[in-house]
Structure formats: C-alpha cells, structure tokens
Design brief:
Length: about 260
C-alpha cells in the first residue's frame, strides 16, 4: 500500500508540475491575489480490509476553510486552504484492544486542522469550450478526542486521533458561451487514505490499535458551475459522485473568491 501511495503522489506531482486546470471561469483574467471561503461536505465508504465490523464503515466530514489564491498568469493559478474539519467514522471497529470498540453515530464528530492546496492550468483558453487540468490535495489532522467506555464494571476510556488525506487530479471540461455562467465537468482519479489510532485504558489494562483506512472507489465525477457575480466576486458550486461496488458516494463544494 505504501508503494501505491508513493506512486500516486509522484504521478500528481509530475502531472501538475508540467501542466494543470483552467481558471474555469476566466482564462483571460489578469493575474493577481484573491481570497475567499470554501465550505464542503463528503461522504465516503471506507475499505479497512478484513477487519470491518458488522456494518460497512463510512467517513463523513464537513470542511470549512479560508482560501488564498494567486493567479500566476492568465489561466494558471495556485490556491492554499487553511481551516477546520469535523469528521465522523460511523461503523469503524477496533478488535485488537482489550475491549472491542465499535464507533456509532453516538460517538460524535472529531475536529481537526484542515490544510489543502489546488493547482489549475488552462490548456485550451480560446473559444466557447475550455479544457484544462485540476489537482487538489487536502489533509485533515484530527485533534485527539476521549470517550468513556460504558457497560464495564470498571471505569475505562479510549483516546482517538484520526488523520486522513484526499488527493484528486483530472481534466476539466468547461463551456464559456454564457456570460457570467460557466458550467463544467471534472472527471478525476480520486484517492482517499489515512489512519485512525486508538489508545485504551481500563484500570491496569492498556492497549493500542492503529487502523489503516482508504476510500472505496478511486474515480469520481464532478459537475459544477462558476458564477461571475461581478468583476471581483466569483462563486463556484460543485457536486461530486464516486462510484463503488454496490453503490456510490458523494460530495459537495461551495466556494467564494474575491479579487483584491
């Protein structure tokens, strides 16, 4: 698995180093600094190998971040995200502890520091149809949380700290024939992976388990649009679907960008 992750990251770096998306809405805009706010939601079914519990584990997360975007030149930009994530791991089971732990909806959500980066490059900037490439990377660094263990004769607790990452890269097909409204398609290779570590203590009994997680399905399709509300304000909305065996997962994104 480690080699697979390294190869995937290398492909992204090489691809984005040589090219990358359109400034979807305006490949002809002047270069400069922009800032904004991004709000997203994702729901992904997890693959934990043979260690799955009675239910299929699922990661759901709300992502909120401040965005700083810099247009290096028309049609080529970089963006950095810093914010907060709130994640839940419903159905995730830990069996190698002194007392087994199954996460349910009553376990609540786990906050974390959200860091991200985007790179976009226009490959075809003239005419009504646009073609480019987009790469995204997000990391959620979970803040350690503690839960009590109910139903035991002695007092006990577990402490958990999840870390997950998500990387995607693919072409963006856009239509710029309508003033102020640019719909686009974003088919992509999408990979989600991470770890969740639990420490358990029940009187003199202690245990630790670190579980590798990854998202089921590694391809996604995004459908969205850019709305140019003014020369300085742009809003982007996007919905994503991720096919997998037996169903599909989904995500949503809403982003505002303001030019200085």
């Amino acid at each position: 698995m480690k080699n697979h992750k390294l190869v995937f990251c290398a492909i992204i770096l090489v691809t984005l180093g040589t090219s990358a998306l359109p400034a979807l809405s305006q490949a002809h805009s002047e270069s400069g600094l922009r800032a904004g706010f991004s709000l997203g939601y994702l729901s992904r079914t997890l693959d934990v190998g043979e260690e799955a519990g009675e239910t299929t584990p699922e990661l759901t997360s709300v992502l909120a971040s401040l965005v700083l975007r810099y247009d290096l030149q028309p049609g080529f930009c970089l963006a950095a995200h810093v914010g907060y994530s709130s994640s839940a791991f419903d159905g995730l089971a830990f069996r190698r502890l002194p007392f087994s732990v199954d996460f349910g909806r009553d376990a609540g959500r786990i906050g974390g520091l959200l860091l991200g980066a985007e790179i976009e490059k226009s490959l075809l900037g003239e005419g009504a149809f646009g073609l480019g490439i987009l790469g995204r990377f997000f990391a959620s660094l979970g803040i350690q949380k503690e839960w009590d263990l109910p139903g035991l004769a002695a007092e006990g607790s577990v402490k958990g700290k999840p870390v997950w990452m998500k990387a995607s890269v693919g072409p963006v097909l856009s239509y710029r024939g309508w003033a102020g409204f640019t719909p686009f398609l974003f088919p992509r290779f999408d990979y989600l992976w991470g770890t969740f570590e639990l420490d358990q203590k029940v009187q003199s009994l202690e245990g630790n388990e670190k579980k590798d997680i990854k998202g089921k399905g590694q391809f996604g399709l995004g459908l969205g649009a850019d709305f140019e509300l003014s020369k300085s304000l742009r809003v982007r909305g996007e919905a994503g679907v991720y096919p997998r065996g037996g169903g599909a997962d989904y995500s949503f994104l809403l982003q505002t960008i303001i030019a200085f």
